[in-house]
């Protein structure tokens, strides 16, 4: 529920004409990251992991939005057991890529806050393109 509330809060902020650019992720005072609209005709898929250390399960959530900010769909999945955050972030991005492929979307931007996950996928894409 917290992910849904945060996403809604970010989406509402993105609707304001004075929305700050995506490279400046922090707005002073609230500590919240802001969602930035993608360019025209692009779908943005946001992925985030959740670890519940005290309870044991882990999971991830995804939200798909069109460049207008319109919510296309969202989902979350949880699993029993224990995994570290980078592994769960990678699972979420992998699921998002499968989702994108199933929907046959071609102009898509995937966004996650998992630095290690972004680096791994960026290196794999660069390696794939270089071949």
UniProtKB/TrEMBL annotation:
It comes from Cannabis sativa. Gene3D superfamilies: Ribonuclease H-like superfamily/Ribonuclease H (3.30.420.10). Residues 46-124 form the RNase H type-1 domain. CDD domains: RNase_H_like. It holds the Pfam family RVT_3. InterPro entries: RNase_H-like_dom_plant, RNase_H-like_EbsB-rel, RNaseH-like_sf, RNaseH_domain, RNaseH_sf. This is RNase H type-1 domain-containing protein. GO terms for molecular function: nucleic acid binding; RNA-DNA hybrid ribonuclease activity. SUPFAM superfamilies: Ribonuclease H-like.
């Amino acid at each position: 529920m917290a992910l849904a509330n945060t996403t809604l809060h970010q989406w509402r902020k993105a609707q304001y004409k004075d929305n700050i650019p995506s490279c400046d992720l922090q707005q002073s005072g609230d500590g919240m990251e802001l969602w930035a609209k993608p360019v025209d005709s692009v779908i943005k898929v946001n992925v985030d992991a959740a670890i519940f250390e005290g309870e044991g399960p882990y999971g991830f959530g995804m939200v798909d939005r069109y460049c207008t900010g319109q919510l296309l769909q969202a989902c979350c999945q949880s699993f029993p057991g224990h995994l570290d955050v980078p592994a769960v972030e990678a699972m979420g991005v992998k699921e998002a890529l499968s989702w994108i492929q199933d929907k046959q979307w071609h102009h898509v931007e995937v966004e996650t806050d998992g630095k290690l996950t972004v680096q791994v996928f960026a290196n794999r894409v660069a390696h794939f393109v270089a071949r």
